[in-house]
Amino acid sequence: MIGATDRRWLIAMVGIPTFFHVLLVWIPALVTVGLSFAEWNNLDPLTAIRPVGGENYEVIVTVFGTRLFPALFNNLALVFFLFACTAAGMLLAYLLDKNVRGTAIYQSIYYFPVVLSLAVVGFIWKSVMFSREAGLLNLLWPGDPIDFVGDQTRLFEVMVPFTDVPVGISRNFAALLIAMAWRHIGYVMVLYLAGLKAVDPSLKEAAAVDGCNEWQSFRRVVFPTLKPINVVVAVITVIEALRAYDIIAALNVPRGTEVMGTLVTSALIGEGAGRVGIGSAYGTVLFVLCIGFIIWYVYNNFREDER
Fold first, then answer.
1. CB-based burial of residue 230 (10 Å sphere; 0-12 exposed, 13-18 middle, 19+ buried)?
2. CA 223/CA 209 separation, integer angstroms
3. DSSP track, 209-275
4. pLDDT(2) > 70
5. How many domains does the structure of the chain reveal?
6. Which domain holds residue 183?
7. What is the pLDDT of residue 307?
8. Does position 269 have pLDDT exceeding 80, yes or no?
9. Is residue 213, in this structure, part of any structural domain at all?
10. Domain with 106 in it: what CATH number?
């Protein structure tokens, strides 16, 4: 039986974090959704909030479509690229799980970027790796120095259906993808390494007795047992790609690297700031994209619990 004191402690331990979570996360999120249907100048807080219906969404699609679609394309490109990096992280985890000599050192080296914030990663790559004058990549490059941050030439370009807006990956955004991969691969590696350590060795032995080679054993025995890790990694990868902002801000948001997060900030405090409705509309689009993967994650967890 739970005593009255234990019950109070339980309520406090659950209720206080829940209160702050709702206060600092869900209430601002819902306020953002509400403001996306209004017009308000945040630089003059005394200005009245004027409802405008869906006008802000119409504006970001039509008037600001040349900013919305390229930024959204960059976010989606980041999703696919980080999934490719996820495969690299899984491979590193699989190799380290074999307890090769120096495993602890390799783990520390690969995981080191994860302890750094994305802003710090951005500063490191901007000054140490990408610098046109003294960057390591340019020192190793035999030809003329490359402007990794400033070159906004697109590697390829496609047109958004039903619009005249071109989108594509710019050279500086491709360089930024490398910097993000440096951090993401180590993070994924640690998650998969923890999952591989939990796999029952007898399953691998049984697969070997049945005549499975190493690839067949991983694909048919080990990988299915990693499903909970796969779900967590997939959700983290997508959300991290969609909310990317810090590393781009550290590079001063060069043209061609805009994502949804930078559009939100620009509408609120950047050039032509004071458009809370526009910024909230950008934020709501980003919120809808993220919440879909969060719901998928929660659904998978509940389904596993029921089983």
1. middle
2. 18
3. HTT--HHHHIIIIIHHHTHHHHHHHHHHHHHHHHT--HHHHHTT--TT---HHHHHHHHHHSTT---
4. no
5. 1
6. 67-271
7. 60
8. no
9. yes
10. 1.10.3720.10
